[in-house]
Amino acid sequence: MSGVTSRLDATSGRALLDIAISEIRRALETGDRRVDSSIVEGDELPEELVEQGAAFVSLHQESRLIGCIGSIESRRPLALDVADNALGAAFRDPRLPPLDPADFASMEVEVSVLAPLQRLNVGSYDELQATVREGVDGLLVKAGRGRATLLPSVWEQSPSVAWFLDVLWRKAGFTRGSWPRGIEVFCYTTESFIDSGPRQGLDQP
């Protein structure tokens, strides 16, 4: 669960956004939705982007979510994780249709890089509610076949800790306010970088 631990500067954040945008552009223009693994070759990228890392990529169009896919645990170079999750957000989010090419030029792209997960040693729902840092923590919960996460950005829509946990519990398939047997709870923070557009449109065949 280890990964990129140092804060990323604006240059690294811009590089991650450029990777996400260019991979989506390439896929839309060529029809090839496989990640370009060569992006981590050579010396062009900042060193921290070649380290293992985990990130989410979220796409919005006029505040409407049009795709969001991410990784919780660090298993590959951060730049590659962002590239693959950008393609996932654009084309593989099971909740939403594939990206409409007409949205490309004006969509908002957000890359959220996760800090390493930290296990929370809490023994009840009420203890978790008292422990979680409102507006700061993302949470991951696992028990049996149930698993769900909410990014820290969800706090922007949340009126309370109770609301945040209720949404997380429903997403995991847990009974509201319950404490499933064997449950594991992890918290994490994110660094987010946003490209609001507009950008150059797609090349037409």
CATH fold label of the largest domain = Glycoprotein, Type 4 Pilin
- Helix-strand string: HEEEEHEEHEEHEE
- Report the average pLDDT across residues: 93
Number of domains: 2
Number of beta strands:
10
CATH class of the largest domain: Alpha Beta
Shape: globular
Q: CATH superfamily of the largest domain, please? A: Hypothetical protein ph0010, domain 1
Can you tell me about this structure?
The protein is α+β, with helices and mostly antiparallel strands and 205 residues long. It folds into two domains: 10-115 and 190-195, Glycoprotein, Type 4 Pilin (2-Layer Sandwich), CATH 3.30.700.20; 118-188, Hypothetical protein ph0010, domain 2 (Dna Ligase, domain 1). The protein has four helices and ten strands; from the N terminus they run αββββαββαββαββ. It has helices at residues 10-30, 78-91, 125-131, 161-172, and strands at 52-53, 55-61, 64-70, 76-77, 108-114, 118-119, 138-143, 146-150, 184-188, 190-195. α1 (10-30) packs across α2 (78-91). The longest helix has 21 residues, at 10-30. The protein is globular.
